[in-house]
């Protein structure tokens, strides 16, 4: 076919272009079909593709005419010059298409410029180049002599690699009177030969038959393949095996090693060959457990031990043995073998706790039963006789029961859980076998608690120090008690003893947590009102009946700076700290203008007052004494000085957080005549009041001094006449309801402490963190009775000193009241 080219032109119509395109598509889609026989030589012409497709041979090479193939070694190729399709190599149809009835090979040829694809189909024609063959050259059949005529035996089919008519078409069997051949056609699977028994067989006449099976294909001439068939006629099994003994009975020790021979049985068969060969086995109805214990040799009839033989599990075994021949239809004979097991001492005694109280009260009486124990030994005779005992424990014993091999575990003495709460008892059981075996069992006996211990406080008595001004309802301290018992017997609850006694007068203002012993105060303590107190706490356990104990709690209140200074003078008529002082203008330097008087209810540094000028009209005129509060002139007044001066005095204490108060003094400078007149009036009034105050003060102080001296003399005389050893852990004086002085002494460990007021002892040391009112007294100790007497004397003298200070304080308060009224 000539190549056609299409070049668009404007003059051609659309219809002509469509027609040409259809023609080109039909040519490009053309398909050819050729056929060639297999096994032809290389270069054999298959067909002229260029001619059949009408291609121009001169353009094939330029247009790269070729066959597109995915294999490296194609079966066909096309010549570029003439367009003829040639065979590239020998073609084996059976390799290319296997057993397909039609073998077609699809080829795709391509031309370029323009691109054209043409499909070519080549059919490979089969030739009869293969002979039929059987899977094996010889086969053997075993047929019993009692088989009936008509019995069929399928033989293996022959295979031919050729297909269609050249495949296997028929079978032939060599001449014989006893067999004939049938062929079964299975379509695509081929033809199957079947050997059929035509006449009864007689082993005694002919023991075997030799036949030849031939397979023929459909070629002309046909090709064939042979297979030899050897038929053995089997003997009829008409004799059963017979055992050599009527009864087999043996003994076997338990725990015999695996592989030990128990017995060997023997049976014979009068038949020949396999019909006369005997094999041994256990009966099919035998218990599966026996198969785990014993094994039998199928050839020798030897019975051996396979598993663990235990007399205690079973003392006798009866095993059914079968003797069978090896015939196609074997005959069988059965025989019983009796095996008696002999006991050995291989079981240790077993200890069983049949009834056990894991816990026993510690207050149980001797002879209380804790557990019932039974012992057992699976062995028999002496091997099963058991003796039971317990270790050397002084609290428990084994008591034999009326029932054999039963014992009672009982207590021998009183128990104490706090001494030992658990006993691990080892019970030993031993048999009388040879050699003897034994076993042990440990049981734990827990001693349960009885409420036989009272709660005990960790300290007795308790001493606590509480800073005044505590928050009401907040916890201030706690007590702790413990109980040696356990559980509810050790569950402690706390309460405060409220019996109305004088020592417990503050108990209503205290609350205690019944579970943890935390004590909270329902009111705020004031050191200036209350210095110390004590109460009692009772701890009670939850046992039945409950037990309790109590402890004394001593509480010391520590002072803190909670009182601001109070101005005593000057005080105006309306109560404010203001005053007016008039002085002559002609006074000299150092003249006492007035004295500011103040009071602080706290003690120690908290009550130590310092004075300072916060505001002054002229700093060059007046000076204020830091400690006494005296206001004096620094120089003489001049004509240019103001006639009135305002002084604001700041009074503050020495607490960590100091508190303060202010007083205002108005100083009026007057002429000497006016000053003298005013001074006379004031002096007369002050002299009268001062004389009365001085009189009462002298009487009071004199009385106190005399009483103090008499008390010291009496104390010294009493101590000299006494030799009693007296010591006290807490040295405590009478509490005073005042603030000018205060003294409490107490001891903690190796140190003695004193709570003091403004007057502090020389040589005392201030302890940090004590709010500046706790002193550590030097520890002066001597040996012997002299030291004890001196110590007691010191305490008593200190008490008297405090009493004197108390009286002095009352006097000072009385004096302050008078001055205030003035």
UniProtKB/TrEMBL annotation:
<feature type="transmembrane region" description="Helical">
    <location>
        <begin position="695"/>
        <end position="718"/>
    </location>
</feature>
<keyword id="KW-1003">Cell membrane</keyword>
<keyword id="KW-0130">Cell adhesion</keyword>
<feature type="domain" description="Cadherin">
    <location>
        <begin position="135"/>
        <end position="243"/>
    </location>
</feature>
<dbReference type="InterPro" id="IPR050174">
    <property type="entry name" value="Protocadherin/Cadherin-CA"/>
</dbReference>
<keyword id="KW-1133">Transmembrane helix</keyword>
<feature type="domain" description="Cadherin">
    <location>
        <begin position="28"/>
        <end position="134"/>
    </location>
</feature>
<keyword id="KW-0677">Repeat</keyword>
<feature type="domain" description="Cadherin">
    <location>
        <begin position="582"/>
        <end position="681"/>
    </location>
</feature>
<dbReference type="InterPro" id="IPR020894">
    <property type="entry name" value="Cadherin_CS"/>
</dbReference>
<dbReference type="Pfam" id="PF08266">
    <property type="entry name" value="Cadherin_2"/>
</dbReference>
<dbReference type="InterPro" id="IPR015919">
    <property type="entry name" value="Cadherin-like_sf"/>
</dbReference>
<dbReference type="Pfam" id="PF16492">
    <property type="entry name" value="Cadherin_C_2"/>
</dbReference>
<dbReference type="GO" id="GO:0005509">
    <property type="term" value="F:calcium ion binding"/>
</dbReference>
<keyword id="KW-0812">Transmembrane</keyword>
<protein>
    <submittedName>
        <fullName>Protocadherin alpha-8</fullName>
    </submittedName>
</protein>
<keyword id="KW-0106">Calcium</keyword>
<dbReference type="InterPro" id="IPR013164">
    <property type="entry name" value="Cadherin_N"/>
</dbReference>
<comment type="function">
    <text>Potential calcium-dependent cell-adhesion protein. May be involved in the establishment and maintenance of specific neuronal connections in the brain.</text>
</comment>
<feature type="domain" description="Cadherin">
    <location>
        <begin position="458"/>
        <end position="567"/>
    </location>
</feature>
<dbReference type="InterPro" id="IPR002126">
    <property type="entry name" value="Cadherin-like_dom"/>
</dbReference>
<feature type="domain" description="Cadherin">
    <location>
        <begin position="244"/>
        <end position="351"/>
    </location>
</feature>
<dbReference type="InterPro" id="IPR032455">
    <property type="entry name" value="Cadherin_C"/>
</dbReference>
<dbReference type="Pfam" id="PF00028">
    <property type="entry name" value="Cadherin"/>
</dbReference>
<keyword id="KW-0325">Glycoprotein</keyword>
<feature type="domain" description="Cadherin">
    <location>
        <begin position="352"/>
        <end position="457"/>
    </location>
</feature>
<keyword id="KW-0732">Signal</keyword>
<dbReference type="GO" id="GO:0009653">
    <property type="term" value="P:anatomical structure morphogenesis"/>
</dbReference>
<dbReference type="GO" id="GO:0007156">
    <property type="term" value="P:homophilic cell adhesion via plasma membrane adhesion molecules"/>
</dbReference>
<dbReference type="GO" id="GO:0005886">
    <property type="term" value="C:plasma membrane"/>
</dbReference>
<keyword id="KW-0472">Membrane</keyword>
